[in-house]
Specification:
heterodimer; A: mainly beta; B: mainly beta; 6-stranded mixed sheet; 11 strands; globular
């Protein structure tokens, strides 16, 4: 199976602009979570989507938003970029269970998108 | 509420020596615990997990961890370090059927020849 893919891998944006990052989960995984990783704050949970609905949300301002499509692919958007938004954004997917199989609780991560805001 | 504390932001060992990375957690519900490894410019790779059942769990690359409820710990060990083990290691906790992981601050493992 192909792993979690994220595009683009690198982005450079200017303060005030907006950005959209994309994540394709492992085939069959319906849960997609997003994390922000910075040297100062470490790994912080942004939000989780399951079946096109936001199921969990972290403590980030409303400038950070996301969505999930019917094929489980997910996008996150950051509007009005600030210098502090420079980070590695990681997407992870997990198996949420099915008729004949229980959920697994581990998450599988993509390589991340490195966002630099200047 | 849940939290994770990793003791020691940097750990240095000699090649062939025991690796011990410490993780303590706090959780108001039965915890699901994970160790991930991150190599430079890469995402996180799952090393091992504890959900239920056996408290000693074995993972990839010779790593293992023991869940100790009384000590609220989930320390990661490897009997003999290899140069390729040099990386950053993260302990994480979740409350089960959620897509939210709470991570520790990470421990950078240095392996000296």
């Amino acid at each position: 199976k192909a792993g979690v893919t994220q595009t683009p891998r690198y982005l450079i944006k200017t303060r005030g602009q907006q950005v959209t990052l994309s994540c394709s989960p492992i085939s069959g995984h319906r849960s997609v979570s997003w994390y922000q990783q910075t040297p100062g704050q470490g790994l912080q949970f942004l939000f989780e989507y399951f079946s096109e609905t936001q199921r969990n949300k972290g403590n980030f301002p409303g400038r950070f938003s996301g969505r999930q499509f019917s094929n489980s692919r997910s996008e996150m958007n950051v509007s009005t970029l600030e210098l502090g938004d420079s980070a590695l954004y990681l997407c992870a997917s997990s198996w949420s269970g099915g008729t004949n199989a229980p959920p697994s609780y581990e998450q599988y991560f993509g390589p991340g998108t490195r966002l630099t805001v200047t | 509420a849940q939290s994770v504390t990793q003791l020691g932001s940097h750990v240095s060992v000699s090649e062939g020596a025991l690796v011990l990375l410490r993780c303590n957690y706090s959780s108001s519900v039965p915890p699901y615990l994970f160790w991930y490894v991150q190599y430079p410019n890469q995402g996180l790779q799952l090393l091992l997990k504890y959900t239920t059942g056996a408290t000693l769990v074995k993972g990839i690359n010779g790593f293992e961890a023991e869940f100790k409820k009384s000590e609220t710990s989930f320390h990661l060990t490897k009997p003999s370090a290899h140069m390729s083990d040099a990386a950053e290691y993260f302990c994480a906790v979740s409350g089960g059927n959620t897509g939210k992981l709470i991570f520790g601050q990470g421990t950078t493992l240095q392996v000296k020849p």
